Amino acid sequence: MPITVVGSIAYDTVTTPFGERNRMLGGAAVHFALAASFFDEVRVVGPVGEDFGEAELDVMRHRGVDVSDIERVQGGRTFFWRGKYGWDLNSRETLDTQLGVFEGFKPKLSDASRASDVLFLANIQPDLQREVHEQMAAARFVALDSMNLWIEAARDSLVKTISVCDCLTLNDSELRQLTGKASLLAAAREVLSWSPPHPRVIVAKQGEYGAALITEDGFFSLPAFPLETVMDPTGAGDTFAGGFVGYIAAHPEEELSDELLRQAMAHGTALASFNVEEFGTERVAHLSGPEIVARVRQLREFTQFSAAALPLGE
Ligand code: AMP
After folding, report:
1. Does 273 contact ligand 1 (Cβ within 6 A)?
2. Is 112 buried (19+), middle (13-18) or exposed (0-12) by CB count in 10 A?
3. Pairing mode, if any, of strands 42-49 and 3-6?
4. How deeply is 117 buried, as exposed, middle or buried, from its count of CB atoms within 10 A (0-12, 13-18, 19+)?
5. Which of 97, 99, 191, 232 keeps 20 to 30 A from 150, CA to CA?
6. Mean per-residue pLDDT of the chain
């Protein structure tokens, strides 16, 4: 089932302890689209400036991503983000954010983008996320991501957007911030208990510690895929979402069961692990399907154990 994604299409300048890149291709929608493209057709909606290069569009085209709804704004500048990581790659400092063409952006979806029945609202202003959602009222599955900026600056709007989606993906600290609950499980259950409509699925992203899935009926958690070398975590959350949502989109006949969601979690985890091995989109842009399949299999081996019935004393 085709997937439409709306969100930032960016130039990122990133410094990690292992190197730096200046104005490389980035953005939440781009990371998502490259990952999801392994599973289904993906259409990206969002603006870029005059400075955005054909080579960057080609990275997406090369993965079969439909870029025809990427709007080039005359005289505008592409969204720019600059960030720095210390040895603890789990926390980063944002040094600069320039919204550029996102200021005043009014999303206009083509008929093809509207016809997708899976929608991912990547991290952007929550009013804009709802505007897109309203243009795709018939979508079968809608997921969204957000960040601390919007929890602080536009909480009411964000809560409205969350309430009309099926799935919320958020960093664990942001889920705590959103709900004021210290426990991740309690925070997720709080969102699941909002008066209807509310999301049915919560994914709490925990950086190098993996991700947890909380639904009304269940809980599931996977560690991040163990890696000896991590170069740059930028975009790992969106790449995870691309694998997770992509897997769900590729199973249109299946009910959104906890089993399907667990499989989707494994694919998201595998995709995210490739993303962090190189800077920005570099690794996922030259990834292959069989590599993903092999990593999902390994992840299964790493996380499986048998239920040994050892009688324990009082
Ligand atoms: P992640 O590491 O998954 O949180 O995503 C990082 C990506 O999000 C980078 O490629 C940035 O271009 C993009 N990004 C950073 N800040 C923002 C923001 N305020 N709005 C939208 N996208 C952003």
Report:
1. no
2. middle
3. parallel
4. middle
5. 232
6. 96
How are strands ordered across the β-sheet holding 10-16?
A: 19-26, 10-16, 79-85, 92-98
Q: Is 257 strand, coil or helix?
A: coil
CA-proximal residue: ligand 1, atom 6 (nearest): 235
Could you tell me if the CB of 234 is within 6 A of ligand 1? Answer: yes
Q: Which residue has the higher pLDDT, 90 or 284?
A: 284
What sign has the CA pseudo-torsion 251, 256, 261, 263?
A: negative
Residue 237 Cβ inside 6 Å of ligand 1? The answer reads yes
User: Cα 195 vs. chain centroid, distance in angstroms?
Assistant: 25
Token pair 């957000």 in the structure block, residue: 146
pTM metric for this prediction = 0.97
Rounded CA gap, 177 and 211, in Å?
17
